[in-house]
Amino acid sequence: MILGKKVVVVMPAYNAEATLRNTHKEVMAQGIVDETVVVDDASRDRTVEVAKMLDRTYVFVHDSNLGYGGNQKTCYRLALERGADIVIMVHPDYQYTPKLIPAMAGMIANNLYHCVIASRILGGHALAGGMPVWRYISNRFLTLIENVLFGAKLSEYHTGYRAFSSELLKSLPLHMNSNDFVFDNQMLAQILWKGCTIAEISCPTRYAPDASSINFSRSIKYGFGCLATAIWFRAARLHIVNPGWLGIRSE
Question: Rounded to an integer, what distance in angstroms lies between the CA atom of residue 107 and that of residue 17?
Fold first, then answer.
């Protein structure tokens, strides 16, 4: 715990057998995590077997592959059901260092923010950390457009390392979001729609063969999904549309 608040780390897992154990070991080494929740999205390797051997870990297995967004929906639901006050998503592929967990949790536990994301762009070392040039350029392009349409000033919207208060998670209509990768972007849009500040912390990253990553064609689909999310958000601000997934109630 931190300041009397239960900290639960969720890990949306898919074919993470090779990296799950080491990621979990470093997560628990931070000393404030009460429990981890591993949701396996119908992996084809030994992810479930490895997860069941981990200390203080609740394991849930999808009967069929629901996608990255569908996996997160289950992760957050289970974390809240298990009494989490602070929920932190850490990818089990060890692309993001768990060493930032105390800092991210502390910002929420001290009631400074309800949402903290770990940015690979802050600090200016994304390329040095191995981020492919094409991914870096697309990240910067999408972030620029999204900041304009969202009316925000984030350094990036595409990190998968995030921390939330339970109060915030309970207030978001996550069930209305996509089950695909654009879920991440829709979730941030919902948070911004509520007028909630999203804090950022600089994060070193690691790109390696055993780190999960979507391919180029899926990245293109994700990019267009992010643009659509931002356009819908701006149209809603202008009262042109009334998208239910933003949490707007029909009159």
Answer: 31
Pairing relation of β-strands 115-119 and 162-165?
A: antiparallel
Which DSSP string corresponds to 56-100? Answer: TEEEEE-SS---HHHHHHHHHHHHHHTT-SEEEE--TTS-B-GGG
Instruction: Tell me whether residue 69 is exposed, middle or buried, using C-beta atoms within 10 angstroms of its C-beta: 0 to 12, 13 to 18, 19 or more.
Output: buried
User: Which residue is listed with tokens 């009159």?
Assistant: 251
Residue type (1 letter), 43: S
Q: Is the whole model's pTM more than 0.70, yes or no?
A: yes
Residue 162 neighbours by CB under 8 Å, 6+ apart: 88, 89, 115, 116, 117, 118
Closest listed residue to residue 209, CA positions, set 21, 2, 19, 30:
19
Give the span between the Cα atoms of 68 and 96, in whole angstroms: 17
DSSP state, residue 110: T
Sign of torsion, CA 19 24 27 31? Answer: negative
How many percent of the chain have pLDDT more than 70?
A: 96
C-alpha–C-alpha distance, residues 77 and 75, integer Å: 6
Cα-based angle 143, 144, 149 (whole degrees, multiple of 5): 95
Structure tokens of 81? 């059901």
Question: pLDDT tens for residues 94-117?
Answer: 989 999 999 999 999 999 999 999
Distance, CA of 135 to CA of 93 (rounded, Å): 18
CATH of domain 7-242: 3.90.550.10
